[in-house]
């Protein structure tokens, strides 16, 4: 959904750009059509982003209710910034329970640009910064 929202954003920007160019050339009819098309892409982008927000909210609810597991958190398919946030929350929750072990699922990077893992190294660096040990 995130990727599709980004595509809609690109399409929107292209339509608005072409609309401005058509308007500057004096082709008001084409400019209006392109502007309407751009507005449609904008609405699609906003709808998709809203669904992503709802899904994030559901994930937060599941996490806060402990449905992921008391000692495991699954971070793959998240953006790095989101993964850091969930990791931090999970560490705090584990510490609050007096436990020492947290299993972190990070994925392989198959959906990342150039298929390079981004979450695992970011979480390892983030964890080291705050004094957490790691086992792979």
Gist?
It is built from four helices and two strands, in the order ααβαβα. It has 136 residues and is mainly α.
Your description of this structure?
With 136 residues, the protein is mostly helical. The protein is 65% helix and 4% strand. It has helices spanning 2-25, 28-64, 80-96, 119-129; strands spanning 72-74, 103-105. A two-stranded parallel ribbon has the order 1-2. Helix 1 (2-25) runs antiparallel to helix 2 and helix 3 crosses helix 4 (119-129). It is elongated. The chain starts with a helix and ends in a 7-residue tail after the last helix.
Give the tags:
136 residues; mainly alpha; two-stranded parallel sheet; 2 strands; elongated
| Approximate shape | elongated
Number of strands: 2
For the termini, the CA-CA separation is 31 Å
Q: Can you write the helix and strand succession as a string? A: HHEHEH
Helicity range of the residues? 55-70%
Proportion in β-strands: under 5%
Q: Largest beta sheet, briefly?
A: 2 strands, parallel
User: Helix count?
Assistant: 4
Q: Strand order, main sheet: write it out.
A: 1-2
> What average pLDDT do the residues reach?
81
Rg from C-alpha positions? 21 Å
Topology:
Layout: H1 2-25, H2 28-64, E1 72-74, H3 80-96, E2 103-105, H4 119-129
Parallel strand pairs: 1-2
